[in-house]
From TrEMBL:
InterPro entries per the UniProt record, alphabetical: GAF, GAF-like_dom_sf, PEP-util_enz_mobile_dom, PEP-utilizing_PTS_enzyme, PEP_util_C, PEP_util_CS, Phosphohistidine_dom_sf, PTS_EI-like
Gene3D superfamilies (UniProt xref): 3.30.450.40, Phosphoenolpyruvate-binding domains, Phosphohistidine domain, PtsI, HPr-binding domain
Keyword rRNA-binding carried by entry: no
Superkingdom field: Bacteria
Species in which this protein is naturally found: Zhongshania guokunii
UniProt entry tagged with the keyword Kinase: yes
Pfam families, sorted: GAF, PEP-utilisers_N, PEP-utilizers, PEP-utilizers_C
Family: Belongs to the PEP-utilizing enzyme family.
Enzyme class of the recorded protein, top EC level: transferase
Record-annotated GAF domain positions: 17-164
Signal peptide: none
Protein name: phosphoenolpyruvate--protein phosphotransferase
């Protein structure tokens, strides 16, 4: 059975479209299970009816024409119960429904399994036989396994738009869940980006004139280089240097002699230029897509985009530039930096990518440019929504297709309120972050790009609680030198001086891999990442620390923070290296001070050793994103389990309180620099817990300050006591909602990351 399952899955994955896949499934399952009938019913997303979509053994003329309601027949029973139904005399069951002309009256044995994707029933898979018998456990298990495989096929088909039948096109109105890539609300029209040239569709063909093909290939390369430089120049004033460097990455790929030489070799061997390009690029794309490393998977997107651009010139398509809507929401299967750059900035209001995560290059650019974005909207049938009205909810990660007047009005109101609120909050910029009864709550900012600096200072940031030093590393093709790092760090320290800047040492691994330092692991989030990498490579750690210390000369506003600490030995080793670098620089004549050194608490082990850690360092800072993920075993970038990520989970809140108590017991300050710190409602309980500093995205600074200035600190302990007694995240949300309403801050509820 296992070998048969693998064979069917391979055949299905090679199918050109959904209908072909369904036909393969019913034919092969009937053959493997030796049954007379195999049928697939798919649920219409609008009517909820189960449509007869593919069949082996019954009347093929009724495919697509017969359907069952959710309460009709044995098929409806399977869908309603969401579990298999196995009968030896189907016709005797009270739910049996006779369908004239379909031909199933001769079959007595019935086995149906629901097709479920992300908790939603998408259809039913059925096998039937004339003999009156119950299917055995192995047969039932096989059908359930096949239905699970089919669920993925249907989901992919909907995402890529290969469901073209009328009953399966996107409905009059619908909502699709993705991952929040950049916050905000965008209302506009979809402009679907479909690459002009599809590499996989190019046929193999022998050429008559090798020299002409080589000339055409060279000309196409030159044309694409020119296009990329033009796009780079176009965005030069709109993007900070770090993000703008992405176009240099594209040019370096274009100048890579290895793949160019492979194409030339194939042309010289007699293949025409289009075919040679297709074969070489497709091979490289497949190799990158099969890699586990997230960074290299993203490179497959870049290579695919460049390959298509070269192919479009080879095909000599003279296509006029598209006419983008006034309020364009750019939609595509894999959005890239160059696609973003082609839309006039004044028209681009939002973006949706079917694939990708919040760490994709295009998501980084979207945040830098302030464009509301949803990534990973895997169920969105993007090829069917050209010019459709869309709403991008960059707060929750939802895309609303053809919204109803009520939904449109809601988000229009949200957008206007957001704009008005932002303008109104500007008045708070220079006012102190303190409660009505005088409790001070310093608000710091998380940065990583120079684009963050001006906005952070404009919004009244009192310091930097987290500077992500890995970003300059990610945007290069080698480790930056000590001097290159010193220049970058000096720029940050100068920009915020005399305010403190907390620089986290290199935090790679997990979903952050360097292209020139690949980390290939089966489970990277529980593997070699953060401090574990840099302690194993002290040469990297020492160079970075030396650069930080040099950059701080004469400013003395540097703080150093160690990531992914899970035991005290790691802290002891890191402190020894920092002191070594410091003493070496003193000997070299640098006039510097040893900065405060802290530890990030982001794994459960650090929570339980927080007091021991606090004894060794100057401060603690909670990374609530990773801590929540590790406590709940949930990857917040995975759409399948994203709904289980609850920053208000009682286990998370208890851990946060435990860290504060441990740090204060040792007389050390403790802050928090994850997403939770920027949640206005969460600020109420974080203050009550005793956190000494909150560090957040610059967009959240004034919202959090508004809440702080509207409450009384003496009232917050009662709120915290109540929150710590409840059993679920939903109960916590309810209490925080009530508290926000009581202080007149209900207008900020929709902006909270905790989803109050």
């Amino acid at each position: 059975m296992l070998e048969a399952l693998r064979s069917i899955v391979q055949a299905v994955n090679a199918a050109d479209d959904l209908q072909s896949a369904l036909d393969i499934i019913v034919t092969r399952i009937a053959e493997v299970m030796n049954t007379e009938v195999c049928t697939v019913y798919l649920r219409d997303p609008d009517t909820k009816r189960l449509i007869f979509m593919a069949n082996q053994g019954l009347n093929p003329e009724l495919i697509g024409k017969v359907s069952l309601g959710p309460d009709e027949g044995l098929v409806g029973l399977v869908a309603r119960r969401e579990e298999p139904v196995n009968l030896d005399h189907a016709e005797k069951h009270p739910n049996f429904l006779f369908l004239p002309g379909i031909g199933e009256e001769h079959y007595h044995s019935f086995l149906g399994a629901p097709i479920i994707h992300q908790r939603s029933v998408m259809g039913v898979l059925v096998v039937q036989q004339k003999d009156s018998r119950r299917f055995d456990e192995d047969e039932e298990a096989f059908l359930v396994t096949m239905s699970a495989q089919l669920a993925g096929v249907i989901a992919h088909a909907r995402a890529t738009g290969s469901i073209n039948t009328a009953q399966n096109t996107v409905g009059a109105t619908a909502s699709f869940k993705g991952i929040a890539g950049a916050t905000g609300v965008a209302i506009g029209q979809a402009a679907v980006v479909v690459p002009m040239a599809e590499l996989h569709s190019v046929p193999r063909r022998q050429c008559d004139d090798v020299a002409a093909e080589l000339k055409a290939f060279t000309a196409a390369l030159d044309a694409v280089r020119s296009d990329i430089r033009a796009l780079s120049d176009k965005l030069l004033t709109q993007l900070p240097a770090d993000e703008h460097a992405l176009f240099d990455v594209y040019l370096r790929i274009m100048d890579d002699g290895a793949w160019v030489a492979e194409v030339v070799e194939k042309i010289e061997g007699g293949e025409w230029a289009q075919g040679a390009l297709s074969q070489v690029m497709s091979s490289h794309i497949r190799a990158f897509e099969m890699m586990e490393d997230t960074y290299f998977k993203e490179r497959a997107t870049d290579i695919k985009d460049l390959g298509r651009r070269v192919l479009s010139y080879l095909q000599a398509n003279d296509i006029e530039p598209p006419d983008y809507p006034e309020r364009t929401i750019l939609v595509g299967e894999e959005l890239t930096a160059s696609m973003l750059g082609e839309v006039p900035r004044e028209k681009l209001v939002g973006m949706v990518s079917v694939r990708g995560s919040s760490n994709s290059h295009v998501a980084i650019l979207a945040r830098a440019m302030g464009i509301p974005t949803v990534m990973g909207a895997s169920d969105l049938p993007y090829t069917q929504i050209e010019n459709a009205n869309l709403i991008v909810d960059g707060y929750s990660g939802y895309v609303h297709y053809n919204p109803t007047p009520e939904v449109y009005e809601h988000f229009r109101s949200v957008s206007e309120e957001d704009h008005a609120l932002n303008q109104g909050l500007e008045a708070l910029r220079d006012l102190p972050s303190e409660t009505l009864d005088g409790h001070r709550m310093p608000l710091w900012v998380n940065t990583g790009l120079m684009a963050d600096v001006a906005r952070s200072l404009d919004r009244g940031a009192e310091g930097v609680g987290l500077y992500r030093t890995e970003i300059p590393f990610l945007l290069r093709e080698r480790f930056p030198s000590e001097e290159e790092q010193r220049v970058i760090y000096r720029e940050q320290l100068l920009a915020f001086a005399p305010l403190p800047v907390t620089m986290r040492t290199l935090d790679i691994g997990g979903d952050k891999a360097l292209p020139y330092f690949p980390i290939d692991e089966e489970n990277p989030f529980l593997g070699w990442r953060g401090i574990r990498v840099t302690l194993d490579h002290p040469e990297i750690f020492l160079v970075q620390v030396r650069a930080m210390l040099k950059a701080s000369e004469g400013l003395n506003n540097l703080r150093i923070m160690l990531p992914m600490i899970s035991n005290v030995q790691e802290v002891d080793e890191a402190l020894e290296l920092v002191r070594r670098a410091y003493e070496e620089l003193l000997e070299d004549g640098w006039d510097i001070n040893l900065p405060p050194i802290g530890v990030m608490v982001e794994v459960p082990a650090a929570v339980y050793q927080a007091r021991q850690l606090a004894r060794r360092v100057d401060f603690l800072s909670v990374g609530s994103n990773d801590l929540t993920q590790y406590l709940l075993a949930v990857d917040r970038n995975n759409t399948r389990v994203a709904d289980l990520y609850h920053a208000y989970h009682p286990a998370v809140l208890n851990s946060l309180q435990q860290v504060v108590d441990a740090a204060h017991a040792e007389g050390k300050p403790v802050g928090i620099c994850g997403e939770l710190a920027g949640d206005p409602a969460a600020a109420l309980i974080l203050m009550a817990m005793g956190y000494d500093m909150l560090s957040m995205n610059d967009n959240s600074l004034l919202r959090v300050k508004a809440v702080i200035r509207s409450c009384r600190f003496e009232d917050l302990q009662g709120l915290l006591d109540g929150v710590m007694l409840v059993d679920t995240a939903d109960e916590v949300k309810a209490q925080l909602r009530k508290a926000m309403i009581n202080i007149g801050m209900e207008r900020l509820l929709q902006q909270t990351s905790g989803g109050v």
